[in-house]
Inverse folding.
């Protein structure tokens, strides 16, 4: 059986254990001999793979700069296997690999490599020359993440094992460089809670502590379900357009974010409006003003795409929940104040009516009228007639009990 010649085995480049690609690059940034897959960014440990290519065993840029026998990889040899000798390209590849490793460790979805590569331009790499690559990768993960809180920074820092102060400096340095310094590609500023709190304070929205906590919690829950591509701008616009009702602004913004899809689907749009209407009508009429505001907004929402149906249903659920919670006490209070005002006006009218009746000539009460009639009737009776002489005081009081009884007694009295 024919065996391959030693020269053919020696010339065969190693393959990446992840993607099986032979497009491996000597990692000039590593302190030890390592290969980086140009295709997927996987780092291959030195050892058996490097033994296949003795000329790749020398580490660092010095070996790559040397040419000829015994001096590491010559440009000709690198080109022979299609391996670029560009140091900058190798560094980018390593950074992408580091970013992937950090994301995998944190359990988050990897970032779009095109965004990362757009950041790693030549000028960007030159400005970061001499800085720690692991720290740069960690800073990029942080700046491209939706959650840029201090807690998120600490979690990333635990993965890479750098000093927190060092990582903060790297974040500040990278943030000052294009494309992060450009307004077009500015990463998200803060967490949902931070933004909501900022705008509560900015617009001096009055609410008690419990309502404030519920507002922030509800807003966070809703925003977590949405693609917050332009959180600050949308929230500011909503608050500026719809007054000081924070929850109204949150609802408006949540619906606004669903409508990011530019596709049209009249059926889903109609379904959303009907569900919003139905959910709103199921609430007490005290929230009618809120319902009208939401329905008015629903008419302006662009139609939703099929991909957003789940979000639509989820937000409908949240709308019905929020409409029924105590965070809408402002609307309830408004109605309560109106009812109190009406009661006060009615009481004032009654008092005015009572005052007018008191100003009229004093009318004798029914009992007084009865006594008068009894006295008149008694005066008509003959002194000798003792038909009424046996009546005592109790009999008289009973006699004067009702007008009907008096009339009956009058009929029975002798009136000569």
């Amino acid at each position: 059986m024919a065996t391959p010649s030693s020269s053919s085995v020696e010339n065969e480049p190693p393959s990446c254990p992840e993607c099986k690609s032979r497009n491996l690059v000597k990692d000039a940034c590593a302190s030890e001999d390592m290969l980086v897959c140009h295709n997927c960014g996987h780092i291959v440990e030195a050892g058996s793979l490097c033994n296949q290519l003795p000329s790749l065993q020398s580490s660092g840029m010095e070996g790559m700069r040397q040419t000829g026998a015994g001096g590491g990889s010559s440009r000709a040899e690198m080109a022979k296997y299609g391996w670029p000798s560009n140091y900058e390209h190798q560094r980018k590849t390593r950074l992408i690999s580091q970013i992937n490793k950090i994301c995998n460790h944190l359990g988050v979805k990897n970032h779009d490599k095109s965004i990362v590569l757009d950041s790693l331009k030549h000028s960007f790499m030159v400005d970061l020359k001499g800085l720690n690559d692991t720290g740069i990768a960690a800073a990029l993960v942080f700046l491209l993440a939706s959650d840029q809180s201090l807690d998120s920074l600490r979690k990333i820092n635990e993965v890479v094992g750098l000093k927190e102060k060092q990582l903060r400096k790297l974040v500040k340095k990278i943030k000052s460089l294009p494309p992060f310094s450009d307004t077009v590609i500015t990463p998200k500023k803060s967490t949902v809670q931070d933004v909501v709190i900022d705008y509560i304070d900015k617009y001096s929205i009055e609410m008690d502590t419990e309502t404030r906590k519920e507002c922030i919690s509800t807003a966070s829950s809703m925003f977590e379900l949405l693609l917050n591509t332009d959180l600050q701008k949308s929230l500011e616009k909503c608050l500026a357009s719809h007054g000081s009702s924070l929850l109204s602004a949150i609802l408006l913004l949540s619906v606004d974010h669903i409508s990011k899809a530019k596709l049209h689907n009249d059926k889903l749009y109609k379904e959303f409006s009907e569900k919003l209407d139905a959910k709103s009508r199921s609430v007490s009429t005290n929230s009618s003003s809120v319902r009208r505001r939401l329905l008015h907004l629903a008419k302006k929402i662009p139609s939703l795409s099929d991909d957003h149906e789940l979000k639509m249903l989820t937000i409908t659920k949240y709308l019905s929940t929020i409409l029924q919670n105590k965070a809408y006490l402002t609307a309830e209070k408004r109605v309560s104040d109106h009812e109190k005002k009406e009661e006060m006006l009615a009481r004032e009218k009654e008092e005015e009516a009572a005052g007018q009746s008191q100003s009229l000539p004093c009318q004798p009460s029914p009992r007084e009228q009865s006594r008068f009639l009894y006295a008149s009737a008694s005066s008509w009776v003959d002194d000798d007639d003792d038909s009424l002489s046996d009546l005592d005081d109790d009999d008289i009081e009973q006699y004067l009990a009702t007008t009907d009884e008096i009339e009956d007694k009058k009929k029975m009295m002798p009136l000569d």
Notes: The longest helix spans residues 329-359. The chain has a mean pLDDT of 55. The radius of gyration is 44 Å. The beta strands are 24-26, 34-37, 43-45.
